[in-house]
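Exam revision sheet. Question 4 asks you to relate a sequence to its structure. Input first:
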Amino acid sequence: MHSGSISYPRIREILARPCKCFGFFQFHTCFYCSKVAFVAKKASCELTSRFYDYPFAYTRFNAYFSSFSVRNFNSGSHFLSNSSVQFMGRDNFDDGNGDYAKFRDMGVRDSGELCLFDDHNGGRQKNRNLKFGDFDEVEEEEEEGEEGRDCRDIDDNFMILNSCNGHRVQREDVWRVELEEDEFRHPLVREICRLIQLRSAWNAKLESDLRYLLRSLKPRQVCAVLLSQVDERVALEFFYWADRQWRYRHNLIVYYIMLEILSKTKLCQGAKRVLRLMARRGIECQPEAFSYLMVSYSRAGKLRDAMKVLTLMQKAGVELNLSVCNTAIHVLVMANRMEKALRFFQRMQLVGITPNVVTYNCLIKGYCNMYQVEDALLLIAEMPSKNCSPDKVSYYTIMSFLCKEKQVKEVRDLMEKMSKDSNLFPDQVTYNTLIHMLSKHGHADEALEFLREAEGRGFRIDKVGHSAIVHSYCKQGRIDEAKSIVNEMLSKGCSPDVVTYTAVVDGFCRIGKLDQAEKMLQQMYKHGCKPNTVSYTALLTGLCRKGNSLRAREMMNVSEEEWWTPNAISYSVVMHGLRKEGKLSEACHVVREMVSKGFFPGPVEINLLIESLCQEGKMDEAKKFLEECLNKGCAVNVVNFTTLIHGYCRKDDLEAALSLLDDMYLSNKHPDAVTYTTVIDALGKNGRIEEATDLTMKMLKKGLVPTPVTYRTVIHRYCQMGRVEDLLKLLDKMLSRQKCKTAYNQVIEKLCSFGNLEEADKLLGRILKTASRTDAKTCTMLMESYLSKEMPLSAYKVACRMFNRNLIPDLKLSEKVIKQLMLEGKSAEADNLMLRFVEHGCHSPQFE
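Answer key, structure tokens:
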């Protein structure tokens, strides 16, 4: 082949195997540059037809041959140089081994570009032509109270089932990777995890080291790094950072591991971006990838968006399989939409997707959540007729519900049914499940009965089951029963572990016997069981609950001498205890020490401290504490800033509040409607109504929606200042952004409270357009204000306007109006008002 010519059949053979095409032409162009024109001319027709089968191979062929034709020869280059196919950059396949090695490792199946038009499904193209722009169609909406609209949207998403091929073979190839323990302990994985933990002190050298190590990682080791992160957001940031690095691309399994991690969180936006990135990289999106996104939406409470993923799959050309259908039913069940889940269950069977035991178990769980145990039992009885036998999980699900309701007799009947109907006999797992469920729901006595029964049948319940009963007794304050179980464990040779002793320590702390709790910690050493951080944290909780937080603080200071290390919960417990006792300075010191040890307080803990400092008037200390938390990288949010701004407003230090409002933008913490409302109220309170107006307009221009509190604040301050015309102009702009049906009712009521009845009467026509109960209440308040100022004729006119809108004024109030009209000699108006009541069927002895 080195000395011969490139034959036409050889080109046909190479083109039929596009994964070898690149290496072939890259090698042979070095020897046969003079013969390329002839071969290309002869093969032009074949290449044209092959392009639609293997466009990527044709692109590489065109790119390399055209480059040689430009440099080495002009004749015969017309075909290649005039081709409309553009050169595809090498950085699409960043791999240190070159393109040929990339194709050798990936193969046709793993390359989205190579398989773009390759059809292995009888003419049906799958998701290789997926467009990542389609993922933007999944809108992140809050679920509103529009039940009809929500149900209709979910039903529309069921239509994807109609496009399923009922005769196709169902695949269950879930992309799940099982990692060994050695992969988590690999030196490279541990070093990268260490560098990630130093992200608060990030610099160019650390990033360079991390980038160098990244190129040496294997795909499974990258997965181990992602799974090793405690915070899923940190794992997602590392995933994005690694994807941006030169000469590196994530392997297929890394994407699925990242999606699996995100499916266990509420980070649905991150899961959607990962799925979009897969489409952009040309990576095949299996149905399981969409399932992960659905579960993430479900955890975030966004049912409509979760079900819209089904529509997204249809647009992407991905067929439903049984796994996705089970996920959809699970999402509906978790959202308590059992009716929709059953409808989906029926429709999936109509299109030929046969449910399995997982499908039925999801429905059984849904029935139990809806307290419909009878229907769950009927479903179990129906399963054998559907060629799907129930497993132990099916029965355990119902048993769990019965344990929660303390229906022990029904549990025993179900155990007999499980043995008789399904040939599933109770084993040690069954008894362990019952013991844990009963103990979890506070039924320790019943759990102890099952423990005795299990031991009578020859099963040995381990210390985990005993510890569950001990913990249940301790939560109820029944320490004597708990101690007897511990002694029984020792006599059986089932040595209690640290969990068992910790439960007893916590039980003593719950009933206030702190001395006994400390003695129990000392006894643990005698029994060869070393207390851990959880054990000492239980004691710290008891001390703080008893108001002895300083003692708890001293215990933390000597923790190293006791050979235990406080964790984030330990610091949080002591911090809350000091805060409740009013020792705010010590609480702040605990938080600072907590941050220095690498434990970051949450926004709630930060907010509680800031609020306590503000209540005591220590504004400077509160601001300093917030700045320290911000500089240390703590999760400071908008609520923390708003709390501090509110503290400044209560002290009438508006300049500091406005300055802090500007600092929020510098810290990339954008104020929300609550923040603006707080400052607007303070400005109006101090008579700076023009600045309040400007700030309100600024809030609207930023797209923030006014809250009901915003309306009440603005209305109160403007009515207090008598700026009714300015208020109405501002309300028109606010109502164009967010509707408030009672806005003008609030204006009239505030004007009445401030005695401005003339302006209130002018606005009466705006609220009588709807004629609701709220409008009637507002009119009643206006009538009372008129009567208090001895203006019965005006009150009479308000009552007449109410009658014209089919609203009935208050009868007792109208009697007072009639009485004052008679005293003032306006008998005609009084008689007319009495007649209107009689016409509407209202009668009173006063009228006679």
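Marking note for examiners. Confidence is low (pLDDT under 50) at residues 1-8, 18-148, 166-174.
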